[in-house]
Each structure stands twice: as C-alpha cells, then as structure tokens.
Amino acid sequence: MRYALPIYFVLKEKPIRLPNGDWSEGSETKALKYANISDMGDETKMNVFGNVTAQGLVIRIQNDYTSEFDHIEINNIKYRVLRKKTFRHDAVFEVGEADGL
C-alpha cells in the first residue's frame, strides 16, 4: 500500500480580541502527512450518510496522528472526520465533505 497523497490536518485557532477592540482572525496551523486515500464503499455510505451520493473517503496514514485538529484538507477541499480507527501501525479515518467549514 502506497502512502503517496498529501493531506493536511488543520487546527484553527480561535479569534482573539485585540486591545483596540477589533478581532483578529484565527490562524490555521496545517500538519502535512502522506496517506493512502480511497472512496468509501456504497454500503458504508448508506450507513453513515443515509445515501450513496454523498462524498465519502477512507484515509489511511502510517502511525497514529495524536495531535489535535479540526478538519482534514485534501486538494483544498475540507473534510470532517466521521470515524477514526487506530491499529498497531496505522490509523484509518472515514471522512465526509464538510459543509460550512
């Protein structure tokens, strides 16, 4: 199995109030990992989303990713994590396209 596709684990910092009363925009911190990505099966899509037309992916990375993150970006598309499974030498994320992130 090849882990060749770049993905980003994104942590959004919360906006803070500046001394002049304005709000700063929260910055994003991105951590690059390489992953094996495949489409989610139709049966799993039915169980998770309730239909087979939703965009769902299965992402596999080597070792576990234990740092905090808000969402995953692949090709500038944001995905939310629906389920995470951790195994001895890798981690599997089932993700769906995020609306409104």
Protein architecture, described:
- The chain is mostly beta strands and 101 residues long.
- The chain has one helix at 42-48; strands at residues 5-12, 28-39, 56-62, 71-74, 77-86, 90-97.
- The protein has a 6-stranded antiparallel barrel.
- The protein starts with a strand and ends with a strand.
- The relative contact order is 0.24.
Helix content: under 10%
Order of helices and strands: EEHEEEE
Radius of gyration: 16 Å
Shape: globular
Task: Give the neighbour order of strands across the main sheet.
Answer: 1-2-3-6-5-4
Provide the residue-averaged pLDDT. Answer: 86
Secondary-structure-based class equals mainly beta
Low-confidence stretches: none
Distance between the termini: 31 Å
Strand percentage lies at over 45%
| Separate helix tally | 1
> What is the number of strand segments?
6
Main beta sheet strand tally, sense and closure: 6 strands, antiparallel, barrel
In a nutshell, what does this entry contain?
This protein has 101 residues and is mainly β.
